[in-house]
Amino acid sequence: MRAVRVHKFGGPEELKLEEVPDPVAGPGEILLKIEAIGINPLDTYIRSGVHAICPPLPYTPGGDGAGTVISVGEGVIEFSAGDRVYMAAAVGSHFDGAMAEMAAVATSEIFHLPENSSFAEGAALGVPYATAYYGLHLRGQAQPGQTVFIHGASGAVGTATVQMARALGLKVIGSAGSQKGCRLVLEQGAHHVLNHLCDGYLDELGSLTGGKGPDLIVEMLANVNLARDLDVVAKYGRIVIVGSRGEITINPRSAMMKNVDVVGLALFNASDEQTQLIHAGLRAGLESGILKAVIGRTMALEEAVASHEAVLEPGAFGKIIVTP
């Protein structure tokens, strides 16, 4: 089969499309024919060698995918050949294996894909939708009637958070960096959208929240925005850090004076019970039609290098999907 392989950590050019032996499902595993692969910024951090968890070399990148079960290994009873499933390797804390035509995957990292969801939509679930659910419901403790500001709402995690927050009954305010992104955020259910490339855009949060600020901020780029989030969040509010690409200096007194909770999120820290809850919630949302992944761009396996470049470009818009 064809698979993308990384033989040394480094830039996108280290992604090599190669012919490798077909995998075989071992005990507790399924053999998956991959129809779609979801690309995440996380994949690029692992490939570059800067992530806290890096696989042994060489490895096949990609933790999110979807496809059809070819066969099952010894002891597997919850899946059968022909089942439509999605792969979420992040729940197993190794984040790899999806960027190929087939993969042998532990059943703990595989979930049934409802018939009303495409393989591309399934490949968009693992990191983005699980992160959105974890951040909004479990880390953010969002409640109906509250106001949430999603700082960076046009990307894969952002659009997922918008959909969930609106379904939960929150007042939803999002931000994006282009007119196209702003339209997308509104289409996904936000009540208001701000262009975060415009000077003073955060000043609008006051008038949109009756002067008190948002109860919850879901932050996608903390190294740029966290200090400003502390200025605008409501008293007794919460800030959930979903993404960051570096360091930032803040004044802790900003959090002290408002009794603000600032919490981090790493999906691999979710407990087994939380993981099952997250994916049960995602399945219910998919089946009901409340959740529907936004596919921003589809690329071929031969474009692996370009996919890792594109996922970090400014102006995130939905999910990048690679098809074998």
Describe this structure in words.
This protein is 29% helix and 25% strand. The chain is an alpha/beta fold. It folds into 2 domains: 2-124 and 293-323, Quinone Oxidoreductase, Chain A, domain 1 (Alpha-Beta Complex); 128-267, Rossmann fold (3-Layer(aba) Sandwich), CATH 3.40.50.720. Strand 1 (2-6) and strand 2 form a beta hairpin. Helix 3 crosses helix 4 (156-168). It is globular and about 60 Å long.
Counting H and I runs of at least 4 residues, what is the number of helices? 10
Chain-averaged pLDDT: 94
How many domain units?
Answer: 2
- Gross morphology: globular
Main β-sheet: number of strands, strand sense, barrel status? 7 strands, mixed
Q: How many β-strand runs? A: 15
Features:
single chain, 324 residues, alpha/beta, Quinone Oxidoreductase, Chain A, domain 1, Rossmann fold, 2 domains, seven-stranded mixed sheet, six-stranded parallel sheet, 15 strands, 29% helix, globular
Brief digest:
The chain has 324 residues and is α/β, with parallel strands linked by helices.
Write the layout of secondary structure elements.
Elements: E1 2-6, E2 15-19, E3 29-39, H1 41-48, E4 64-72, E5 84-88, E6 102-106, E7 110-112, H2 119-123, H3 125-139, E8 147-151, H4 156-168, E9 171-176, H5 179-187, E10 192-195, H6 204-208, E11 216-219, H7 222-232, E12 238-241, H8 252-256, E13 261-264, H9 272-288, E14 295-300, H10 304-310, E15 319-323
Parallel strand pairs: 8-9, 8-11, 9-10, 11-12, 12-13, 14-15
Antiparallel strand pairs: 1-2, 3-4, 3-6, 3-15, 4-5, 5-7
